[in-house]
Amino acid sequence: VAEESVAATGDPKYYDLAQRAYTRAIESAPDVEPAQLGLGRVYMARNEWANALPPLIAASRLAPTDPEVLFSMGLTYKNLRQPKVAAQWFEDQPKKTARTYWELGQIYRDENLGPKTVDAFREATRLGAEEEKAGAKLDWLTEAYYQLGEVEQIAHDDVAARAAFQRFVDRGPPAGAELGEAHRLLSGELRAP
Question: From residue 98, how far is each of 42, 95, 101, 104, 133 by CA, in Å?
Fold first, then answer.
């Protein structure tokens, strides 16, 4: 309830309530995965990544195949600057979401894993477009199209790069360097024949 209150009101005081509730639940029944995961999510929401790790590790031992646990572990390790460990947690998800592929794409890009980067960003944008069509709002999807355009261009797939940059522009990103670069490329070297 407390996590829902934060989401509904934007008031972080509810995190304190959630933290206390989850801590009490863990003290009385440490083998309850939802309480461990919930406490980890509270710390994640506060960007307290090191504090999130112990309850998430406990949750992963209790529910080793839970997709939310796997994703939370991956995101926590990514934010703790352990990309190889993070990638393993994301890769272990049996059914990856658009957001999982987005996170993997960023890790692969930073690790210079060319083809894996392209594949991850392609899946992130494909699945993300499907999720938005179904009504979801994905704040990261506009940036994902830009990143996809960059990696497609590096891979010398100008047609795919042009399509990705055009989708980026069509989403109406704020004025800035990325939008300027996308316009420059679309009117120059990636111009449609």
Answer: 22, 10, 5, 10, 13
